[in-house]
Here is the input.
Amino acid sequence: MEGTIHILSLSLLLILSLAQAGELTNPKCAKFHQDNNKDSTTLQVLHVNSPCSPLKQQQKYTSWVDNVLQMQSKDTNRLQFLASLVAGRSFVPIGSGRQILQTPSYIVKAKIGTPPQTLMVALDNSNDFSWFPCSGCVGCSSTVFASTKSTTFNNVSCERAVCSLVPKRDCDAGTCTFNLTYGNSNIGGGLSVDTFALSADPVPQFNFGCIRKATGSSAPPQGLLALGRGSLSFMSQADSLYKSTFSYCLPSYKSPNFSGTLRLGPKGQPLRIKTTPLLRNPRRSSFYYVNLVGVKVGKAIVKIPPSALAFNPNTGAGTIIDSGTVFTRLVEAAYTAVRNEFRRRMGRNTTVTSLGGFDTCYTVPITIPTITLMFAGMNVTLPQDNFLIRSSSSTTTCLAMAASPADPVNSVLNVIASWQQQNHRILFDVPNSRVGVAREACS
Ligand SMILES: *[C@@H]1O[C@H](CO)[C@@H](O)[C@H](O)[C@H]1NC(C)=O
Ligand SMILES: *[C@@H]1O[C@H](CO)[C@@H](O)[C@H](O)[C@H]1NC(C)=O
Ligand SMILES: *[C@@H]1O[C@H](CO)[C@@H](O)[C@H](O)[C@H]1NC(C)=O
Ligand SMILES: *[C@@H]1O[C@H](CO)[C@@H](O)[C@H](O)[C@H]1NC(C)=O
Ligand SMILES: *[C@@H]1O[C@H](CO)[C@@H](O)[C@H](O)[C@H]1NC(C)=O
Here is the structure.
């Protein structure tokens, strides 16, 4: 068993080195690799498997779409994870080890320490606690933050109030430690501070988890940048710089260039943008909740039981905008209603097939209705690329959404995921309690 792991990590290293060589010679990737522009608060966002990503892994299939289709099965685990957070129960993945949590798919370049070291961190707007692999970590990938080389690095003592915010906290010789589960990974380490920067403006004394031990395969290799709403998140800690305001445009899954942007702070955000109120749910204060009030298929407003979409501070039920899930999930009753209306539009004679986790697929040319997500005060009509997935190896077209999983906890969450967000600018404006959506061809 251990031998297998060694061979696996060796071949992974090899793939990574080869990938890195290719990525450095690709002129299109230069933009991502040059140092962040002085006074620029707009950063390049890459898909983790983009040609320019130093973290990209060998794909199982030659067609990108077929690889994306495989992501859907991993998505289920993220949904179960998010649902368990709402339910306040710890998450044990089904068939742990084989099925892994979908690692957040988008990465940005960050600088940490003095002198600064570069990490490619994964964006997660549904988490509050950032963590990076540190010097001496057992079970981390090869690129770690060499905390011992940073003159501004410090462990946080147990007495500090911030220690009470970390998951499963403990005290080790006066130092605040944490343990957490992320998908099938167990991660442990110490709460630490150091200078951290996404843009040219460093955040001094940034609190994060310094990973000393990791098991499993779900953790993003160079760490997680938490962009949630809670007090420990990057956005809260950098509030004086960015006023809890950011937006991103996630690049299209179809684009080989795969580069979008993350824009920090109120400056430079779109002025003309449709918005819907941002809701705070005490049951899960890190999530960005919005009020999804309905779904239109073509001109018909789908009959969805109101309870399937209702925002409920007692149960945590409602709709969140998540960057770490790939395909939108609606609670069973809502999904079934949307899917049935979509199928009805296709006519009774058109045979419905399934593909992977998608249950509404067609192998013949179809006339596609529009799909509109109706939020409080904002209708978002999705371009076809945002709700269909077309397999390249066959002529199959699927509705790129699914029902929220019912296990291990019945999910009460509707999750608007990255497939539905690609090529849109999504603005998170906490001071004005609003979420904005505007189409933008960012890739
Ligand atoms: C921080 O804690 C780790 C783990 O206990 C230890 O190895 C390291 O020396 C500490 N660093 C500092 C600067 O105190
Ligand atoms: C965290 O996990 C380590 C082993 O991985 C264990 O020694 C430690 O006690 C755990 N701490 C907490 C607070 O559960
Ligand atoms: C990729 O980038 C090149 C130039 O940077 C551009 O000409 C091309 O249209 C882009 N492709 C896509 C699919 O966006
Ligand atoms: C559906 O198929 C049946 C039997 O094959 C046929 O009689 C009917 O006209 C078809 N309806 C449509 C709308 O094509
Ligand atoms: C959204 O669409 C519905 C149904 O077409 C309409 O009644 C409603 O006024 C629209 N809302 C906004 C904010 O445009």
About this structure: The helical segments are 2-25, 30-33, 64-87, 234-237, 239-242, 306-309, 332-346, 418-421. Confidence is low (pLDDT under 50) at residues 1-24, 88-102.
